[in-house]
Amino acid sequence: MITLHHLNNSRSQRIIWLLEELGIEYNIQFYQRDPITILAPQSLKDVHPLGKSPVITDDATGITLAESGAIIEYLIAKYGSQFKPSESDDQYWQYIYWLHFSEGSLMPPMVMRLVFMKMRSAPMPFFIKPVAKMLADKVLKSFVSPNIKHSLAYIESHLEKNSWFCGDQLTGADFQMSFPLEASAARGLIGDEYPNIKKYVKTFQARPAYQAGLAKGGEYDYA
Ligand SMILES: N[C@@H](CCC(=O)N[C@@H](CS)C(=O)NCC(=O)O)C(=O)O
């Protein structure tokens, strides 16, 4: 049996969506973020030393695996080859590309945005606050926002020509890309200039397996 170690309001939701699409049996072990630090509890470090979610354990193979991309590859290799183009398929390298792009290129500026937005409103001595705010705004404006916009424009042009990230086939790349795109949409970053991203997010969120996963995963602010 597979167990997904799932943190509330996290990237782990995309693994629940995949598990639902695969139609295999699984358990969810729930973990709650600290309300102040929003970090994962110590108990997640007992499962994997880095204490980040998602993590899966699989009784059938005895494996404990972290990293969304690795988990998606594992689940597809073991239980769902329909979600991966074959190596001879033209879409194969698109699959590899988007699977890596999500956490490798898109998530880093998104996480930076979160951190610098928090810095703007963090409690601190009154005389430091304007300086901290000015620094955060400078980094957001000169580096973080342009990076996010550049990536979103690139994704928008890809989705103008493709229903899913690998043409007309739902693949592991879509589960991996779903989180940054729905999180961006929920944070108001997907404006009218990105009609294809908007449509894409609505399309995957309407899938019965996605909805079933949402009902099982508990608190999630991005759907
Ligand atoms: N690249 C990793 C990122 C894992 C990650 O940072 N997960 C977040 C949840 S979205 C987490 O566990 N945060 C809690 C913490 O860092 O304590 C992946 O895709 O699995």
Describe the 3D structure.
The chain is α+β, with helices and mostly antiparallel strands. The protein has two domains: 2-84 and 212-217, Glutaredoxin (3-Layer(aba) Sandwich); 92-207, Up-down Bundle (Glutathione S-transferase Yfyf (Class Pi), Chain A, domain 2), CATH 1.20.1050.10. The chain has helices spanning 13-22, 42-45, 68-79, 92-121, 129-161, 172-186, 195-205, 208-217, and strands at 2-7, 26-31, 55-58, 63-66. The protein has a four-stranded mixed β-sheet, with helices on one face. Helix 1 (13-22) links the parallel strand 1 (2-7) and strand 2 (26-31). Helix 4 (92-121) packs parallel to helix 6 (172-186), helix 5 (129-161) packs across helix 7 (195-205) and helix 6 packs across helix 7. The longest helix has 33 residues, at 129-161. The radius of gyration is 18 Å and the shape is globular.
In CATH, the topology of the largest domain is named Glutathione S-transferase Yfyf (Class Pi), Chain A, domain 2
Identify the CATH class of the largest domain.
Mainly Alpha
Total separate domains: 2
Low-confidence stretches: none
Determine the fraction of residues in helical runs and give it as a percent range.
Answer: 55-70%
Q: Which CATH architecture of the largest domain?
A: Up-down Bundle
Report how far apart the termini are.
27 Å
Report the total helices: 8
Q: Give me the side-by-side strand order of the main sheet.
A: 2-1-3-4
The distinct bound ligands, ions and cofactors come out as:
glutathione
Major sheet: 4 strands, mixed
Strand pairing plus helix content: what structural class?
alpha+beta
Backbone shape: globular
Overall radius of gyration: 18 Å
Roughly what is the average pLDDT, rounded to an integer?
A: 97
- SSE ordering: EHEHEEHHHHHH
The total of beta strands comes to 4
Content of β-strand:
5-15%
